[in-house]
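Example record for the data management plan.
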Amino acid sequence: MTARPPGRPREVDITRVARSAVDLFTERGYESVSMDDVASAAGISRRSLFNHFATKAELLWSGHEFYVDRLRRHLMRPSGQGAALTDVLTSGFVRALDDLGEDGLALARARLRVVSAHPDTAAVGQVVVAACRAVVLDHLRTRVRGELTCRCIAGGVAAAAYEALMWWAAGDAPDPERDISSGIAALTLRE
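Corresponding structural encoding:
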Protein backbone atom coordinates (compact mmCIF):
# COMPACT_ATOMS: atom_id res chain seq x y z
CA MET A 1 0.00 0.00 0.00
CA THR A 2 1.39 3.36 -0.97
CA ALA A 3 0.89 6.35 1.24
CA ARG A 4 -0.36 9.65 -0.12
CA PRO A 5 2.23 12.37 -0.31
CA PRO A 6 2.00 14.67 2.71
CA GLY A 7 -0.19 17.70 2.24
CA ARG A 8 -1.85 16.36 -0.88
CA PRO A 9 -5.62 16.35 -0.47
CA ARG A 10 -7.49 13.26 -1.50
CA GLU A 11 -10.01 13.66 -4.28
CA VAL A 12 -13.55 14.36 -3.21
CA ASP A 13 -16.44 12.70 -5.03
CA ILE A 14 -18.86 15.62 -5.09
CA THR A 15 -21.83 13.44 -6.06
CA ARG A 16 -21.19 11.03 -3.20
CA VAL A 17 -20.90 13.92 -0.74
CA ALA A 18 -24.15 15.46 -1.96
CA ARG A 19 -25.91 12.10 -1.79
CA SER A 20 -24.67 11.63 1.80
CA ALA A 21 -25.99 15.08 2.68
CA VAL A 22 -29.40 14.50 1.12
CA ASP A 23 -29.68 11.14 2.90
CA LEU A 24 -28.91 12.83 6.22
CA PHE A 25 -31.36 15.68 5.52
CA THR A 26 -34.06 13.13 4.71
CA GLU A 27 -33.37 10.94 7.74
CA ARG A 28 -32.74 13.56 10.42
CA GLY A 29 -34.17 16.78 9.05
CA TYR A 30 -32.39 19.61 7.32
CA GLU A 31 -32.03 21.85 10.37
CA SER A 32 -30.63 19.14 12.61
CA VAL A 33 -27.79 18.21 10.24
CA SER A 34 -24.57 20.21 10.45
CA MET A 35 -21.83 20.51 7.89
CA ASP A 36 -19.66 18.51 10.32
CA ASP A 37 -22.28 15.72 10.18
CA VAL A 38 -22.14 15.76 6.39
CA ALA A 39 -18.33 15.65 6.34
CA SER A 40 -18.32 12.74 8.75
CA ALA A 41 -20.96 10.78 6.81
CA ALA A 42 -19.11 11.39 3.55
CA GLY A 43 -15.78 10.38 5.06
CA ILE A 44 -14.03 13.66 4.32
CA SER A 45 -12.63 16.45 6.43
CA ARG A 46 -14.64 19.52 7.30
CA ARG A 47 -12.10 21.59 5.41
CA SER A 48 -12.51 19.49 2.26
CA LEU A 49 -16.27 19.85 2.51
CA PHE A 50 -16.05 23.63 2.80
CA ASN A 51 -13.61 23.73 -0.13
CA HIS A 52 -16.49 22.50 -2.29
CA PHE A 53 -19.64 23.73 -0.54
CA ALA A 54 -20.11 26.90 1.48
CA THR A 55 -23.58 25.97 2.75
CA LYS A 56 -25.99 23.08 3.15
CA ALA A 57 -28.19 24.66 0.48
CA GLU A 58 -25.31 24.42 -2.00
CA LEU A 59 -25.09 20.71 -1.22
CA LEU A 60 -28.74 20.33 -2.17
CA TRP A 61 -28.28 21.99 -5.54
CA SER A 62 -24.88 20.57 -6.49
CA GLY A 63 -24.56 18.64 -9.72
CA HIS A 64 -27.08 20.71 -11.63
CA GLU A 65 -24.50 21.44 -14.32
CA PHE A 66 -24.91 17.93 -15.74
CA TYR A 67 -28.67 18.39 -16.08
CA VAL A 68 -28.33 21.83 -17.68
CA ASP A 69 -25.74 20.46 -20.11
CA ARG A 70 -28.05 17.59 -21.07
CA LEU A 71 -30.96 20.02 -21.54
CA ARG A 72 -28.77 22.08 -23.87
CA ARG A 73 -27.76 19.02 -25.87
CA HIS A 74 -31.35 17.85 -26.27
CA LEU A 75 -32.61 21.26 -27.34
CA MET A 76 -29.73 21.67 -29.82
CA ARG A 77 -30.69 18.48 -31.62
CA PRO A 78 -32.82 19.10 -34.67
CA SER A 79 -36.46 18.29 -34.01
CA GLY A 80 -38.92 17.05 -36.55
CA GLN A 81 -40.13 19.59 -39.07
CA GLY A 82 -43.09 21.46 -37.69
CA ALA A 83 -42.78 20.03 -34.19
CA ALA A 84 -44.75 22.14 -31.73
CA LEU A 85 -42.64 24.33 -29.49
CA THR A 86 -44.28 22.95 -26.34
CA ASP A 87 -43.45 19.40 -27.45
CA VAL A 88 -39.82 20.25 -28.21
CA LEU A 89 -39.27 22.03 -24.89
CA THR A 90 -41.08 19.36 -22.88
CA SER A 91 -39.05 16.66 -24.58
CA GLY A 92 -35.81 18.51 -23.82
CA PHE A 93 -36.57 18.77 -20.10
CA VAL A 94 -37.81 15.17 -19.86
CA ARG A 95 -34.93 13.66 -21.82
CA ALA A 96 -32.40 15.58 -19.71
CA LEU A 97 -34.01 14.04 -16.62
CA ASP A 98 -33.90 10.60 -18.24
CA ASP A 99 -30.16 11.09 -18.66
CA LEU A 100 -29.84 11.24 -14.87
CA GLY A 101 -30.74 7.56 -14.71
CA GLU A 102 -32.90 5.92 -12.09
CA ASP A 103 -30.59 6.71 -9.16
CA GLY A 104 -30.08 10.30 -10.29
CA LEU A 105 -33.82 10.82 -10.63
CA ALA A 106 -34.41 9.39 -7.16
CA LEU A 107 -31.74 11.75 -5.79
CA ALA A 108 -33.36 14.70 -7.60
CA ARG A 109 -36.73 13.83 -6.02
CA ALA A 110 -35.19 13.58 -2.55
CA ARG A 111 -33.40 16.92 -3.02
CA LEU A 112 -36.57 18.66 -4.17
CA ARG A 113 -38.51 17.27 -1.22
CA VAL A 114 -35.98 18.79 1.15
CA VAL A 115 -36.16 22.08 -0.75
CA SER A 116 -39.95 22.02 -0.55
CA ALA A 117 -39.80 21.62 3.22
CA HIS A 118 -37.21 24.41 3.53
CA PRO A 119 -38.09 27.24 1.15
CA ASP A 120 -35.04 29.25 2.20
CA THR A 121 -32.94 26.74 0.23
CA ALA A 122 -34.83 27.59 -2.96
CA ALA A 123 -32.86 30.82 -3.37
CA VAL A 124 -29.75 28.82 -4.24
CA GLY A 125 -31.86 26.85 -6.72
CA GLN A 126 -32.61 29.99 -8.67
CA VAL A 127 -29.15 29.54 -10.20
CA VAL A 128 -30.42 26.30 -11.72
CA VAL A 129 -33.63 27.93 -12.94
CA ALA A 130 -31.60 30.78 -14.47
CA ALA A 131 -29.27 28.31 -16.21
CA CYS A 132 -32.25 26.41 -17.67
CA ARG A 133 -33.80 29.71 -18.74
CA ALA A 134 -30.59 30.64 -20.60
CA VAL A 135 -30.60 27.31 -22.44
CA VAL A 136 -34.26 27.66 -23.41
CA LEU A 137 -33.64 31.26 -24.51
CA ASP A 138 -30.83 30.15 -26.82
CA HIS A 139 -33.15 27.58 -28.38
CA LEU A 140 -36.04 30.00 -28.75
CA ARG A 141 -33.88 32.51 -30.58
CA THR A 142 -33.61 29.96 -33.40
CA ARG A 143 -37.40 29.50 -33.64
CA VAL A 144 -39.25 32.56 -32.38
CA ARG A 145 -39.15 36.17 -33.55
CA GLY A 146 -38.64 39.02 -31.13
CA GLU A 147 -36.18 39.16 -28.27
CA LEU A 148 -38.79 40.18 -25.71
CA THR A 149 -41.03 37.30 -26.76
CA CYS A 150 -38.11 34.87 -26.46
CA ARG A 151 -37.16 36.18 -23.02
CA CYS A 152 -40.70 36.02 -21.68
CA ILE A 153 -41.27 32.51 -22.96
CA ALA A 154 -37.90 31.31 -21.65
CA GLY A 155 -38.61 32.71 -18.19
CA GLY A 156 -42.05 31.16 -18.14
CA VAL A 157 -40.87 27.76 -19.34
CA ALA A 158 -38.00 27.58 -16.84
CA ALA A 159 -40.33 28.57 -13.99
CA ALA A 160 -43.04 26.14 -15.15
CA ALA A 161 -40.55 23.26 -15.38
CA TYR A 162 -39.26 24.02 -11.87
CA GLU A 163 -42.78 24.18 -10.41
CA ALA A 164 -43.71 20.96 -12.23
CA LEU A 165 -40.67 19.22 -10.79
CA MET A 166 -41.54 20.42 -7.29
CA TRP A 167 -45.08 19.09 -7.81
CA TRP A 168 -43.74 15.75 -9.04
CA ALA A 169 -41.29 15.47 -6.14
CA ALA A 170 -44.11 15.91 -3.62
CA GLY A 171 -46.16 13.15 -5.23
CA ASP A 172 -45.56 9.51 -6.03
CA ALA A 173 -45.56 9.38 -9.84
CA PRO A 174 -42.55 7.34 -10.98
CA ASP A 175 -41.35 9.92 -13.46
CA PRO A 176 -41.99 13.63 -13.99
CA GLU A 177 -42.89 13.58 -17.70
CA ARG A 178 -46.64 14.10 -17.23
CA ASP A 179 -46.12 16.95 -14.76
CA ILE A 180 -43.53 18.72 -16.89
CA SER A 181 -45.74 18.35 -19.94
CA SER A 182 -48.73 19.78 -18.07
CA GLY A 183 -46.68 22.62 -16.59
CA ILE A 184 -45.22 23.77 -19.88
CA ALA A 185 -48.50 23.28 -21.76
CA ALA A 186 -50.22 25.48 -19.19
CA LEU A 187 -48.28 28.40 -20.66
CA THR A 188 -50.04 27.87 -24.03
CA LEU A 189 -46.92 28.69 -26.01
CA ARG A 190 -47.07 29.67 -29.62
CA GLU A 191 -44.44 30.13 -32.30
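Summary line stored alongside the record: The chain is about 70% helix and 0% strand.
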